[in-house]
Amino acid sequence: MERNLTHIALFAALIAVLSLVPKIDLISGVPITAQSLGIMLCGTVLGAKRGAAAVLLFLALVALGLPLLSGGRGGIGVFMGPSVGYLVGFPVAAFVAGLVVERWRAPIGVAAFAGAVLGGILLLSAFGIVGLRAYSVLIAEGVADAKTFTWVQAVAAATPFLIGDTIKAVLAGAITQSLARLRPDSVLSRA
User: Fold this and answer.
1) Over the Cα atoms of the chain, what is R_g?
2) In whole angstroms, what is the distance from residue 152 CA to residue 132 CA?
3) How many CA atoms lie within 13 A of 33 on its CB side?
4) Rounded to whole angstroms, how far apart are CA atoms 85 and 113?
5) What are the chain's domains?
6) Is the torsion defined by CA of 165, 170, 171, 173 positive or negative?
7) pTM of the model
8) What secondary structure letter does DSSP report for 75?
9) Distance CA 108, CA 1 (A)
């Protein structure tokens, strides 16, 4: 139990550390960050439940006001912005990535890459698109000049993330595979 809590806390800290990599702001208001690599690694290394728990711990700290998101953002207000879908999708993405690694008995690097793609790219992008569309509709009702994203525009706004996310999925697979070789007991998704 103590070991699980330590891993969960360490991976929540890893997501926070990845916020130090400078963000790239996009016109949609959703920045490109390195933190999604941390989300992928939470699942591929810790497994479904522990990975989701690490992400939930991170999000709880953000909600409490700690400036742990890229660009030093934090507080409950970030859950009411254009990136709300991604934030809500973070724990689900980690859970799915971990579930793939736990259940699919392919070589660990292949399973980790597949889990990162399924959870950290496809599922997280779907959450992000729905969140951006919902945010733009809700904000447009209250603000006359607000930009409203159609479904097509919301999908188009998510496409710049695909190249970087694919690189992050490759890194998640390689890092998970390296950890499995160097310290097999540390990859809890296969324990």
Assistant:
1) 16
2) 11
3) 25
4) 23
5) 2-190 (1.10.1760.20)
6) positive
7) 0.91
8) S
9) 24
Give residues with Cβ within 8 angstroms of 117, minimum separation 6.
166, 169
pLDDT, tens digit (0-9, with 9 covering 90-100), for 112-157: 999 999 999 999 999 999 998 888 777 766 654 556 777 888 888 7
Return the SS3 of 187: coil
CA proximity to 41, closest of 68, 6, 14, 9: 14
Question: pLDDT tens digit string along 17-68?
Answer: 998 887 777 666 666 788 999 999 999 999 999 999 999 999 999 999 999 9
Dihedral sign computed on CA atoms, order 68, 148, 27, 52: positive
Q: What is the pLDDT of residues 151-186, one digit of tens each?
A: 888 888 788 888 889 999 999 999 999 999 999 999
Token pair 């702001």 is found at 25
The contacts of residue 2 (CB under 8 Å, 6+ apart) are none
Residue type, 154: A
Distance CA 134, CA 126 (A): 12
Q: What is the pLDDT of residue 160?
A: 81
Residue written as token pair 């699980």: 4
Amino acid at 170: V
Q: Which residue spans within the chain are E strands per DSSP?
A: none
Contact 95, 134 (CB under 8 A): no
Q: What are the angstrom distances between the C-alpha of 117 and each of 5, 25, 51, 120, 185? A: 26, 23, 16, 5, 24
